[in-house]
Design a protein that fits this description.
8 helices; two-stranded antiparallel sheet; single chain; about 5% strand
Length: about 170
C-alpha cells in the first residue's frame, strides 16, 4: 500500500470509530439476545421445551437437586419466575420436586428420565445457536466479547467478579 493510499484510508472514518447514539448498545444487545433465544427456541420446539426451560434442564444435568432459588441465581432470573417455570416443567414431566432431606420445608428440583433424555438435544441446540451467532469471529474476538459482557454484567450487578465462582 502506498503512502497516498494510507493517507486516504486515514481520512475515511472507520465504521467502528463513528460515534454511537444513546441506546445503540442496549438495542443491539437486546436484538442479539432475542435472535439467539428465537433460534434456540425454534431448534427445541419439537421437544416441547419452552424458552428458559433449557437452562433449567442443563443446570440440573450438572447438579441435580437444586432449589428454585439456586437455579434462579444460576440463570439470572427472580425466584418467583423460577418457581412458576418449575411448576410448568413438573406438569410437563421434565422434573419432579422433592423435599430436601435435611429440611423438609425446602423443595429441590430433580430431573426425571424424560427430562434427562433432552439434555443432549439441548446441548446440541445451544452449540448450534452459538456457532451461528459467532460465525466469522476469531477466537480472540470471542474471548474479548465475553470479557466485555462479563464486565458489563458486573457493572450492572448481575454476576460475580472474575476469579470468583469457578472462573
Amino acid at each position: 500500500m502506498t503512502k497516498k493510499d494510507k493517507d486516504k484510508k486515514k481520512d475515511k472514518p472507520a465504521k467502528e470509530q463513528q460515534p454511537r447514539e444513546p441506546g445503540d448498545l442496549q438495542s443491539e444487545v437486546t436484538r442479539a439476545s432475542r435472535a439467539m433465544r428465537t433460534f434456540l427456541t425454534n431448534a427445541l420446539s419439537h421437544s416441547g421445551i419452552y424458552a428458559g426451560q433449557d437452562g433449567v434442564i442443563l443446570a440440573l444435568s450438572e447438579e441435580d437437586g437444586l432449589s428454585a432459588g439456586a437455579i434462579a441465581d444460576r440463570l439470572g432470573v427472580k425466584p418467583p419466575t423460577m418457581t412458576r417455570t418449575l411448576a410448568r416443567m413438573e406438569a410437563q414431566g421434565f422434573i419432579k420436586r422433592e423435599a430436601d432431606a435435611s429440611d423438609g420445608r425446602q423443595m429441590r428440583a430433580v430431573l426425571t428420565d424424560h427430562g434427562r433424555r433432552h439434555v443432549g438435544a439441548i446441548q446440541l441446540a445451544v452449540k448450534a445457536t452459538e456457532n451461528l451467532a459467532l460465525h466469522d469471529l476469531s477466537d480472540k474476538e470471542i474471548r474479548q466479547f465475553l470479557k466485555v459482557l462479563r464486565k458489563m454484567n458486573r457493572n450492572l450487578g448481575q454476576v460475580e467478579p472474575e476469579g470468583e465462582a469457578g472462573e
